[in-house]
Design a protein that fits this description.
Elements: H1 12-30, H2 37-62, H3 69-80, H4 94-109, H5 113-123, H6 130-166, H7 171-183, H8 193-206, E1 218-223, E2 247-248, E3 255-266, E4 269-280, E5 284-285, H9 293-296, E6 301-302, H10 306-311, E7 319-326, E8 329-337, E9 349-350, H11 351-357, H12 364-381, E10 396-398, E11 411-415, H13 435-440, H14 447-461, H15 465-472, H16 485-493, E12 494-495, E13 500-501, H17 512-521, H18 536-558, H19 567-572, E14 574-575, E15 581-582, H20 585-588, H21 624-643, E16 664-665, H22 674-699, E17 711-716, E18 733-738, H23 753-764, E19 769-774, H24 785-799, E20 803-806, E21 808-809, H25 818-830, E22 834-838, E23 858-863, E24 883-886, E25 890-893, E26 909-912, H26 915-936, H27 939-944, H28 948-959, E27 972-973, H29 988-1000
Length: about 1000
């Protein structure tokens, strides 16, 4: 390794990266100055070498590879030799002079173009001898080759070491590690896909015509993909039947196979097609030259009429047509069995429709994967006819399979124009019909990037862009529905003049996604020095570096186990309609003989809890044990009857059916005598541990009176204001409002649930301000969504709270008032108000309730005092954060008028279980964390903690116990104590450092 001579504070690698960027930018200016043609070529090469250096550094850092200091030193020397000797002579070492050059250039870059030209002509040796430039060119190219080769060798060594480790590990661990190796692999995208894609479009257009009495209407859906994974170098690599629809090529291969998976429609009936293209190293695509002898040996017929080729597959079920693209023509290759059994009776669903009606489809993982795939699609299809003017989420489609699955396989849909219509995709020769779109996008050299930015924003928020604009109160510029660059900038960045906050404020500042969106909208980034759009090659290289690469990091930073080289195949295994769950192989290979004959309706299983039966519905009053026993008998009878036709009459024993549109409070776990009493004592000890933490970190530092208290709104059934539990906290209750009955000023609790949860909040946040919203009354099962939305908006606008606690939910998003409630939750999230909601008490039967299932809400599960997941808590979702805290045998206040338990006549408390009660405990812990930050941390850190992502990060840190911690049952169990393994079991300085470090991530 070379000796570092870089100044203290900047490593040699950092210097090399900055110098490479500086020289690349200077070279791009130098090649456009009035110099000799040989120099223009040299500076083009220089820009390319510097770009290779930048990619090497970024790639090596992403996989923790080592750098060769000698090669870096040699490259820096070559670059330094391009500078004039004057100007830096006062600095003793050339590396220090290069650092000074970086600083000077950084200032100059902010000035006008003429100033940049003056800088370049002053400091670079323009007009150098050709032999000198050739030596520099060869030296830099050699350095880049060595760095890339060494990275490849390091990768192979890592893989060999990984394989040795895998031989000693169980199978399930092997699978994970293999993903890690693949995801770390080096990659430089192939820029040949766009040529093949455009050639395919033109070839399809050529064979549209026919002699049929009625002209057919054709449409096409092309699968969007990354086209990353390379072909294995085996004889079988040319046979892609076992793994179709993916491009498998590298620039070093002599022959490349590029498969396009697509569907063609004729009279609105979709037919699956696989198109193979072949590229050769010398002559380009086979369509531009002669095919290899091995491929010519197979004589295939030219596709003259698309309709005839499509008709040939109608007689055989579950078959697809394989076509080959050669010399700009399509050839009939064969018919093969499909492995994608789409339900032809169900219309493909658009991404826009998913935003409007299927928001629950989107998990953090599916969002990030989808963003990357669509980003790659723009990289590959930009300036082709597949991305037509005005494209967007309405043109991206998903198919449903015969087994009611919706694989995460996006297709871009286009109409095939009449034969003879121009398909020239150069910027200066667009169709006149597209002029209106071009006028609207004037000012951006690459309109496809505007559309990509819109889709990325939509995916992140799982909302149509028009909805985001409406929520911001910003009217869109075009009445045609086309979204302009001005629209995007206003809605995303906000308007200072009208004090409208942009949606970008809700994306973390250090997010790779935010970087990709900003780069898409930065018009200057996509222009050359003369203000013209970048040429095709430069444009694609820039799109990869500035948009696609950040999207790759956006995915891997959240889901490092997902292999980048296999993203396409990985995504196909996910059921988009079931929160991104893996599609089982046996489900995807069901025999066609077992398929249902009736049309399938695109439905999603309801996500969260089924409402438990109330004793009043039976017409009798039963004690809890008797009620539980009878409910169990009814459940068993219904289950048995549904599976046995001869016993279906038993189902009439109860008229009850689960109502997936009705909300409920999640407190249906009934105490069971002595066992529960013992568990309640465990809970009291658990709470005592927390109180010790609170006393150490808050009470000892809180001024009197407290300044900057945390404000919490609780939406529930009201409270018993006369209860002894609230006597000492009279000053804490700052406001109350009866949304259930606005004519009544008081908020009496005739149910008990609200008193119980409010008392819990004060147990865990005794110095917080409490705001009580009564949204339900005696009946415990039906909070009204519109009333809840009204209460949330009031908490935002009038109470200005920091936290909202919701201990109820709906089993699905299909209920009256959903839109109003969703808008209110979005408003709260936009105002940086933390919302906590109960997961539900459905156990493994159903998933999270709404709003706990919302991406804007922190979902709360339940455990016992040891962190073991409660049986009634929903199964942890593998692709979401699952936070849990104690929710079993919780003791809290109960309305005095409702207490008929003679065992505790003086205390007026009850012991109950449910995610309803884990929720205010978690909200109280969050209030503690906010209060701690306001007392001990800088104001900026305390403010950042109000963002959902930062609070989640800190809660994750609170859950960790020691260096080898792993979530128990995939739950992050939150419990605070003074134990040394707990975050708060150490000195305040160390706690502060740990929290600040967590908030930086």
């Amino acid at each position: 390794m070379g000796t570092s001579l870089a100044p203290e504070g900047e490593s040699e690698v950092d210097l090399f990266q900055r110098v490479s960027q500086t020289f690349r930018q200077m070279a791009e200016i130098a090649r456009n100055i009035d110099v000799h043609e040989e120099e223009k070529i040299f500076y083009s090469h220089l820009a390319l070498h510097c770009m290779r250096f930048e990619v090497c550094i970024e790639r090596a850092r992403s996989v923790s590879s080592q750098f060769n200091g000698d090669v870096i030193d040699r490259a820096l020397s070559c670059l330094y030799s391009l500078l004039l000797e004057t100007g830096f002579h006062e600095l003793p070492y050339h590396k220090l002079r290069l650092q000074d050059l970086n600083a000077s250039w950084e200032k100059t870059r902010k000035q006008e173009h003429n100033a940049q030209v003056v800088f370049v002509t002053r400091w670079m040796k323009l007009g150098s001898p050709e032999d000198h430039l050739n030596r520099i060119d060869e030296g830099l190219e050699d350095c880049a080759d060595i760095l890339e080769k060494q990275q490849k060798q390091q990768k192979q060594q890592q893989q060999q070491q990984q394989r040795r480790q895998q031989q000693q590990q169980p199978e399930n661990v092997l699978k994970k590690h293999s993903h890690d190796v693949l995801s770390a692999s080096n990659y430089e995208p192939s820029y040949v896909v766009w040529k093949a894609a455009q050639a395919l479009f033109e070839a399809l257009q050529k064979c549209k015509g026919c002699s049929c009495s009625k002209q057919h209407e054709f449409g096409a859906k092309l699968e969007m993909g990354t086209y990353r994974r390379p072909v294995k170098k085996t004889d079988k690599s040319l046979n892609t039947r076992s793994n179709p629809s993916v491009m498998r090529c590298r620039d070093g291969d002599a022959t490349r196979i590029l498969d396009f998976e697509m569907f063609l429609s004729m009279e609105h009936k979709w037919h699956e097609i696989r198109v193979q293209t072949v590229k050769e190293r010398v002559v380009g695509f086979a369509m531009d030259g002669h095919a290899t002898p091995s491929l010519e040996a197979h004589k295939a017929k030219v596709v003259e009429n698309l309709c005839k080729s499509i008709d040939s597959t109608k007689s055989t079920a579950w078959q697809r047509l394989v076509l080959k693209l050669k010399r700009g023509q399509l050839f009939n290759e064969r018919v093969e069995k499909t492995n994608f059994w789409i339900d032809k009776s169900a219309e493909p669903i658009s991404l826009l429709k998913c935003f409007e009606e299927r928001r629950e489809f989107f998990t953090e993982k599916t969002k990030r994967i989808l963003s990357l795939i669509i980003g790659y699609a723009v990289l590959h299809l930009n300036r082709t006819s597949w991305l037509q003017p005005g494209w967007g989420s309405a043109n991206i489609k998903f198919f449903q399979t015969t087994t009611r699955k919706t694989p995460l396989r996006p297709f871009i849909q286009v109409d095939l124009p009449e034969a003879g219509t121009t398909t020239d995709v150069e910027p200066d020769s667009a169709d006149k019909d597209d002029a209106s779109f071009e006028d609207l996008d004037a000012g951006h050299p690459c309109p496809a990037l505007i559309a990509l930015a819109i889709v990325l924003i939509e995916v992140y928020f799982a909302k149509p862009f028009t909805k985001l604009a409406q929520m911001s109160g910003i009217p869109l510029e075009s009445s045609s529905g086309h979204i302009t660059l001005v629209d995007v900038c206003q809605v995303f960045n906000g308007e200072d003049e009208n004090e409208i906050e942009g949606w970008r404020s809700q994306i973390p500042e250090d997010s790779h996604l935010l970087k990709a969106i900003d780069n898409c909208l930065d018009t200057a980034r996509w222009e050359d020095e003369e203000g013209d759009p970048l040429d095709n090659a430069a444009m694609k290289s820039q799109i990869y570096q500035d948009v696609v690469r950040p999207l790759e990091l956006h995915l891997t930073s959240g889901f490092s186990s997902i292999p980048l080289d296999d993203v396409d195949d990985y995504a196909r295994q996910l059921d988009f309609g079931q929160w991104g769950q893996i599609i089982n192989d046996h489900e995807s290979q069901i025999s066609t003989s077992t398929l249902p004959q009736e049309p399938l309706i695109h439905q999603r299983s309801p996500s969260p809890a089924v409402m438990l039966l109330d004793s009043g519905q039976l017409g009798v009053q039963l004690s809890p044990p008797a009620l539980q026993k009878l409910l169990h008998q009814i459940s068993m009878a219904n289950s048995f009857a549904s599976s046995s036709p001869s016993l279906k009459s038993l189902s009439s024993f109860s008229s009850y059916e689960p109502n997936y549109r009705v909300s409920q409070f999640f407190d249906d776990e009934i105490s069971d005598g002595g066992y529960s009493n013992a568990k309640t004592k465990d809970y009291i000890r658990w709470r005592f541990e927390y109180e010790n933490v609170y006393a150490k970190c808050i009470r000892a530092y809180l001024p009197d009176p407290p300044s900057g208290p945390v404000k919490i709104a609780i939406l529930d059934t009201g409270i018993d204001r006369d209860h002894d539990a609230f006597e000492a906290y009279e000053e804490n209750i700052k406001a109350k409002f009866n949304f259930y009955n606005k004519s009544q000023k008081s908020i009496p609790d005739l149910n008990g649930h609200g008193t119980f949860t409010a008392s819990l909040l004060l147990d865990y946040a005794p110095d917080a301000e409490l705001y009580i919203a009564k949204i339900a009354d005696k009946e415990n099962a039906t909070p009204n969504a519109k009333i809840v939305a009204d209460a949330i908006n009031h908490a935002i606008d009038n109470w200005n709270v920091d936290i909202i606690s919701l201990s109820f939910g709906w089993p699905s998003t299909n209920f009256e008032g959903f839109d109003e409630l969703e808008d209110a939750i979005d408003r709260a999230h936009g105002k940086k108000i933390l919302i906590f909601a109960a997961a539900s008490n459905s156990g493994g039967k159903l998933g999270r309730a709404y709003p706990a299932s919302s991406s804007q809400v922190i979902c709360v599960h339940s455990t016992d005092t040891l962190g073991t997941p409660s049986g009634f808590s929903p199964t942890a979702e593998p692709d979401n954060l699952n936070f849990a805290t104690v929710g079993e045998s919780i003791e809290s206040a109960w309305p005095m008028l409702l207490c008929n338990d003679t065992t505790t006549p003086q205390r007026y408390v009850k012991s109950r279980s449910g995610t309803s009660y884990a929720t205010p405990i978690m909200a109280g812990i969050a209030a503690f964390l906010l209060q701690y930050a306001r007392l001990h941390l800088p104001e900026r850190a305390a403010s950042a903690l109000k963002r959902k992502e930062k609070m989640e990060a800190l809660l994750k840190r609170c859950a960790k116990r020691g260096p080898n911690y792993a979530p128990r049952g995939n739950y992050y169990y939150i419990e605070l104590s003074l134990h040394q393994h707990n975050l708060f079991g150490r000195e305040l300085d160390r706690i502060n450092d740990e929290i600040l470090e967590t908030l930086k991530r």
